Amino acid sequence: MTAPAPGAGPLAHAWGSPARSGLGELLAHGLEGLSVRPESDAIWAAVDDAAFPGLAAQARKEQGTAWPQPLVSHYARYFRDGNRTAYEGLVAARQERLTRAAVMALLDGRGAGSARQGIAAQGGPASGAETHAWIDEVIDGVLLLCEQSSWSWAAHDDVYSRSGEVVPDRSRPYLDLGAGEVAAQLAWIDYVLGNSLDARAPGLRRRIRQETTERVITPFLERLDWHWLGLDGDVHNWNPWIHTNLIAAALFLVDDPQLQAATVARCIEGLDRFLASIPADGAIDEGFAYWWNGAGRALEGLALLEEASGGALDVDLPVVRHLVAFPHRMHLGGSWFLNVADGPARMDGGLPWDMLHRWAVRLGDRDAARHAAAFLPDGPEAAAGLGRVLHTLSGGAEEAGGRAPLVPFTYLASVQIMVTRETAGSTRGLLLAAKGGHNGEHHNHRDVGSVVVAVDGVPLLVDAGQPTYTAKTFGPDRYEIRAMQSAWHSVPAPFGLEQGTGKAFAADVLHPPTPEEPMLRLALGAAYGLRPEQWIRTSSLDRAARQVAVTDRWDLPDLSDLRVPPGTAISPESRTPDVGITYLAAGTVSVGPDGSATILPAGIPSADKQLGGHGRGAVLRWEPAAAVVLVDEWPLDDPLLSDVWGARLTRLRFRLPEEFRAAGAFTLTVEATS
């Protein structure tokens, strides 16, 4: 198929034609400019074993044991019962073991490189002391991947929708996140351990190239119907994640210069579409967690292109500067970050903070650099992927520790998100995060108008976040999942209405906040299929009074006149003729008899650890005090939720008296306990 015409994104503007017609020449000088070096380089001799204690211990524990073996019965479960973790968990375990083995093999030689021979000088196999077990471990893992029937994850493969079959079709490989990850892992192994692979298993590198070409490179170049290309204007995090992995595969595994240049050029066009989709303020509508596998992947791809071109493809671009600033702007405190869409509220381990730190230092963004330095890990984790692990180990000794900047105010107009804290540079006191936006965002939850309130850096009025993915997660029944419903977010529920799905169900900003006046006023009616002005929510932080206030005002039609448009629904469990307002709380909730409630962080696992069990809580008060509050407990049996929040979340549903049905106001105030 014919390649799409290059767009007019930031890369096309900055790089022009050399990134297209002259790309082969830019890449012709080889890979000597890469910061990650092959095994023969002396850089590895400087890496201390203490830099990866957990990784090394796990590698030694599993060496010589049976490899994780994903089976067709695991693959088929997604199509049978919607379970995707049975297969993906085994795939991840296999690849993480291979990453650990590759690191051990690389550092076992400590710069010996081609001098470490597994084949005797006469051409026969080595034996005894010359046998290097870590290289054999890598060889076994690599061949297992080459023989794995599918590199894609079952949840993404189109084999069932095309044929009704549940067995992967080798003749029609599906290029998804999983396939890109395998290709990149094999590429990095080939690049850093190529001499040892040739010495120990002649022919293996040819097999790697054959499989990668057939499963990844050829489908990428021959098909333009991959949804993640963004040719239809919908550009999401798959785009940079896959394109960056393909850049590594092309640089390390494609030996034909013309084919290599064509592949990299197509990747540049794809990354350009992603960068062109980023708003001027650098906001990511999928939030902090997906930043790492979206914007973060794009930054890694850009850095690799710059190094591989000897600096000719300069990536110091305005959009990059805004992207680098996003993570620290979403920081609540400790390990907590504002979570929107399918993101957890507590950060995962193994994030490549060193990558963000290098970018921040290069760009002179002091706040971003301080923030990344505060989270630099003790050592890399295999779950991050081999490319990220190698960059961490070879990146030098960035200075870890220090204090995160904890900026006092952020407002990202493109996604209508405000984050503001009581005390600049400190978690002490209140933090308010308020969100407008729309319900057509990537990985969307019905959360237009939602608020999160933290005390001393720990969220107590919360967004539940991401449950374990199943077939339902991205299907037509997505909003049957409780965590995705507006009924279980801190938002209004006029007449028990559930918010609608799509960009039309949105907020209008009536009063944008400022650093001096952190107040976000939103018209929310359209999120429910009403007129925008029929529901107004104002969320504010009063630093002097040390108080958060969320005020809802409404002027609703008579219930008999309500016409619910397609895309909205009245939640059966919440149906009511009355006005309703919902807040979701974590920790221990106690409702008093006097129009007040207390939320303590007890029972939130990370809060217990962070605060030593002595953290302050929040006092909630509401007006009118006559509002009836219903308390619903949500027992958490999903580990992705319970690991963050503990055994339960609690929903407070406020019901207003009949005289407030047509028009009225309700204010919830939040203060920290003394």
Poorly predicted segments: 1-6, 111-131
Mean pLDDT over the full residue set: 90
Q: List the total number of helices.
A: 19
- Distance between termini? 67 Å
Strand order of the largest sheet: 11-12-13-14-22-19-18-17
Helix content: 25-40%
Question: What portion of residues belong to β-strands?
Answer: 15-25%
Gyration radius (Cα, Å) is 27 Å
- How many strands? 22
Structural class: alpha+beta
Shape: globular
Biggest beta sheet attributes = 8 strands, antiparallel
Q: What's a concise summary of this model?
A:
With 674 residues, the chain is α+β, with helices and mostly antiparallel strands.
What do you see in this structure?
With 674 residues, this protein is α+β, with helices and mostly antiparallel strands. Helix 10 packs antiparallel against helix 11. An eight-stranded antiparallel β-sheet has the order 11-12-13-14-22-19-18-17, with no helix packed on it. Strands 3-4-5-7-8 form a five-stranded antiparallel β-sheet, with no helix packed on it. A three-stranded antiparallel β-sheet has the order 16-21-20, with no helix packed on it. The protein is 34% helix and 17% strand.
